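Quick illustration, no need to memorize.
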Amino acid sequence: MAFKSLVTFVSLAAALTGAYAALTRRVACPDGKNTATNAACCQLFAVRDDLQENLFHGGLCTAEAHESLRLTFHDAIAISPALEAQGQFGGGGADGSIAIFPEIETNFHPNIGLDEIVELQKPFVARHNLSVADL
């Protein structure tokens, strides 16, 4: 009885997921192999492929992958204790500030060591004409 209910629930969930996917309009990207829900996102597939091949050594979980994830997290969670002490909004959000101000941001104790991945990512930002926040 429980198994029959579980199968019914899973079947219903799969049907609803399929229906939602069918209703979501996608665009074909110029590369001929990717689709996206927004045509503006098509350029990011080339960035993804370049990062996977040339920074992450073919998609391996290397130190560069770990440090890129760490950089993203620290950039997104960044706060300004000085502003918060004044009762003002102290920041937060992935804005690329660690890469924009590396001489300041990477000297903050939790960000020590991120200067290396910032330097490794700079050619990708330049090659794909992105902002550091987009990478």
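The helical segments are 2-23, 43-55, 63-77, 81-85, 97-100, 102-105, 114-127.
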